[in-house]
């Protein structure tokens, strides 16, 4: 079983659109939306939820008023000013560190686990899908990402699926780390801008740290051909395979409005659909997905 994780250094580069496009081009796979903070793959897959589960991802302090002597120890130790002068915990400010629980001399503070979100197992026209929704301002997104990736793998094993396609979160933070560890290969989607190149390099650096083979796809390459060439040169020096270059095309937006993957929008965009098929073929035949790519060399963030 293989897992391809699709990433980008920032949001809005086309990760989800391409994830849905690739899902429409292959069979015998499981979809996983690991962007739990701002999940949107469901907008293109129209999932039918089969299972719904609560995500218990952390704890919040609750002061038992009858047992509290108002000694003030918790106020002194709380570094987030989450406890009012009336000795009531503000759950929006509480970081769940548990320091107040540890130092309370009367043991008058409870620390129950909290529901931080929900995760789902759904059926889509592309096959099974595991996705989640983290609550507003909730923590532990990395833990939730790990949970749904585990569920996706279990489904793939049960249904004898050969591939997991994961729509990863943007950036290089905790949820990204949770989404790439143990993956077979990464596909980085990059736009031809200075910030796009910088963000790409950060993701490449992270992938190298975890020794995950990495592929590259340039989206909207024709909007800035000079920067696209610069990114290609940097990728080549770093030993990264460029699997495709996608031009700017309004049909991407039209397909999203229609709730379709761009690959399903073939009548309106036959040339683009063929291009995406070629890119998917390059991905499936790549050394990265076959575990034959040597470790990439990481370039400095900026060329001097």
How would you explain this protein's 3D organization?
The chain is α/β, with parallel strands linked by helices and 304 residues long. The protein folds into 2 domains: 2-56 and 117-284, P-loop containing nucleotide triphosphate hydrolases (Rossmann fold); 61-111, 2-Layer Sandwich (Alpha-Beta Plaits), CATH 3.30.70. It has helices at 15-25, 42-45, 73-77, 99-103, 141-158, 174-180, 194-209, 225-237, 251-257, 270-284, and strands at residues 2-8, 29-33, 48-59, 62-63, 109-110, 113-124, 127-134, 163-170, 185-190, 214-219, 241-246. The two termini are 41 Å apart. InterPro entries: 4Fe4S_Fe-S-bd, 4Fe4S_Fe_S_CS, CobQ/CobB/MinD/ParA_Nub-bd_dom, P-loop_NTPase. Keywords: Iron, Iron-sulfur, Metal-binding. This is Cobyrinic acid a,c-diamide synthase.
Give the SSE map.
Elements (H helix, E strand, L loop, with lengths): L1 E7 L6 H11 L3 E5 L8 H4 L2 E12 L2 E2 L9 H5 L21 H5 L5 E2 L2 E12 L2 E8 L6 H18 L4 E8 L3 H7 L4 E6 L3 H16 L4 E6 L5 H13 L3 E6 L4 H7 L12 H15 L20
Helix pairs in contact: 5-6
Spatial ordering of strands, largest sheet:
3-6-7-2-8-1-9-10-11
Question: What is the total number of structural domains?
Answer: 2
The helix-strand sequence is: EHEHEEHHEEEHEHEHEHEHH
- Mean pLDDT across all residues, rounded? 90
Q: Please describe the biggest sheet, giving its number of strands, its sense, and whether it closes into a barrel.
A: 9 strands, mixed
Gross geometry: elongated
Helix content: 25-40%
CATH architecture term of the largest domain? 3-Layer(aba) Sandwich
Q: At the fourth CATH level, what is the homologous superfamily of the largest domain?
A: P-loop containing nucleotide triphosphate hydrolases
pLDDT < 50 stretches = 292-304
**What's the CATH class label of the largest domain?**
Alpha Beta
Q: In angstroms, what is the radius of gyration? A: 22 Å
CATH topology of the largest domain: Rossmann fold
Distance from N terminus to C terminus (CA atoms, Å) equals 41 Å
Count of individual helical segments: 10
Which structural class matches the secondary elements?
alpha/beta
Number of strands: 11
